DNA sequence: TCACTTATAATAAGTATTGAAATAAGGGGG
DNA sequence: CCCCCTTATTTCAATACTTATTATAAGTGA
């Protein structure tokens, strides 16, 4: 974000004010001034602009302590709409959000097979978006853009082309353009773990922290690292590939071909396998198997508890490594595997992290669970165009003018 | 860096211009304009200011292609001076640099024992600084500040107090203030690996890259992560503690008390031990032992080569993990252990990293060796006050006015 | 000497921020 | 019911900075 001219400055300040209003349920001019470190005069100017643009409105007022009442400000929900899509193994969820990031509508398009090719996914996304636009014609006027949460590596090269490597779905490399085709919406994409981290950063458990780690445990093991208030992306936006970091020489072979990957220990499939290896249920449906594992453990089943303990220990090691490397204030654990795990073993996990990490960074970090389930992947994806909209790099469609 | 007012803007642009002139050997107005993305008018204004302040000067000109010759600009070396200190196990090196970051003078104060307490180090630093000031009275006029490169964790809490945890020296926790006392210079401190990374970022192999990893291998295993052009610090500035990340369950016990730490495999002591365990030399002086190991390996000694191979492999695993997590463009390896290792096994290390990391991020990364040896720790430390000086958060002493 | 280039400098125009002063909106006491 | 007090917002003058634009400097080649 280059701020070298006076208009960049205005842009930045406008963005800060808009962001502040969007993320607060209710804002006031002086509150914004304090939060954005701006004078009341500047806030007045910017808010006046935003009201003129139809993005913000005043709604009533609340009493001040003995003076002129404070005007309440809020975003105009209909001011802009954003689409977010969660591309998963079972299907594609497409959702529309208004400017308050309230979900307006959603559709789910099931995929026939567990690993449908990009063509099917493309069709499902296009179909889902079309269905939403048809069912909600009023959004058309202010539909700004779309974000995709994808499994696997989403990599934006120096050439500006976004490429998707969804190895877990068995896809070949696909460019984002290939995956979109029909759609005329400006579209952004990111790895699902990163979009979930973005959602937690804006509205969930990572809110307010400058440095957090959002670990997403499911079939895959992902992490979104928040550093300096933004999601860490690295040179080509593929930073945060935690699942295939090695935690053991040799070790079990992972789906990536490597050995000793963290995912080969605590990924959904691995946990289910570890359980069935010691006599647990052995089913096709990993999610169901793991869920039963947790249920058994809760019921006091020793074997199940040992598997859960072991998982906790390895997760603790993995998180401790991240604590040493990133020195976060907060660790947020989520995902369909992570949420029940942390519910059941929060204290133990906390102890394990502190045991395995260096004491200094470990002392600074707080452990918590995600506020959202994986259903927030689409919300986080929709935050991608929102961020561009706020930053001013994405505008309302012509028709709005 | 909050840029919300017009003067912040000026400050930022001034900083960008000054930084550009300091890091280039020779600058021109239009070159600066291009590099900093500013108009020629603005550059003229800012440069005029800098010349008036005595930080920059014009020196001659070079022909342009058929028009008015281009004025050469350079920093005035005597415009400001910075002290950098490298606190090592054997002694304290204190150096003074001028504004071109050319070393003006240096002193070394030996520490009696390998792990002298903070009191001795404090005395050595104070003595070194005093000696330099006495020997170079002309620097006094423009002595801006000091930076310390320290072993161990340097942690700046939310209270703003900088604390040093130099476990490898057997120190208790010490605050930076304790460590300074007598000195009246504004002082900053950072972990030695991070200051070396800073030096490599400004003048060495990490120059020009936005995202790099600078791995420093010696007795300890440290890394400075450069993300978005700046050294990653995390919540309390202790990010980058790579040496004690776990790469193996169980595994050998490390000096930190943990097991399976990377440092317990490829730290200087561990490498020496691995060698002596298979019949290599067994000496007190780790550095000499390791240096002999490399010499033997170069001579074709099979045992030595096996130890070096094994070290390469483990280092490759460790770096691959960082590649997955940070998605850097460049990996820079240095330190008294790292430099000879990469000289001898560059290809093999490269192959190993690519084998163990995910292919996408691995394809994007280039491996190289540090331009500087560990002697640049003091240079990097001196860059801390330089950065503050450039950013305008640190000024020339009163006497200069 | 006279176009013609290219690099800087000077100037004009426009815009943003701030801080002070003005104004708006209520509360409460006499 | 009027006046004073408090607090929130707006208005406005002062200031500072960037960008164009225009002028000037300093050479080249004919």
Give a nutshell description of this structure:
The structure is a homodimer of 401-residue chains. Chain A is α/β, with parallel strands linked by helices and 401 residues long.
Order of helices and strands of chain A: HHHEEEEEHEEEEHEHEEEHHHHEHHEH
Number of continuous helical runs of chain A: 13
Widest sheet: strand ordering of chain A: 5-4-3-6-10
By oligomeric state, this entry counts as: homodimer
Strand-residue fraction of chain A? 15-25%
The parts of chain A where pLDDT drops under 50 for at least 5 residues are: none
Number of strands of chain A: 15
Radius of gyration of chain A, CA atoms, in whole angstroms:
22 Å
N- to C-terminal distance of chain A: 27 Å
Question: Hey, which two chains have the biggest interface?
Answer: A-B, 56 and 56 residues
Question: Main beta sheet of chain A: strand number and arrangement?
Answer: 5 strands, mixed
User: Average pLDDT value of chain A?
Assistant: 92
Helicity of chain A, as a percent range:
40-55%
Shape field of chain A: globular
Secondary-structure-based class of chain A equals alpha/beta
Characterise this structure.
Two copies of one chain form a homodimer. By secondary structure, chain A is an alpha/beta fold. Chain A is built from 13 helices and 15 strands. At the A-B interface, helix 1 and helix 10 of A face helix 1 and helix 10 of B. The structure holds a DNA duplex (30 and 30 nucleotides).
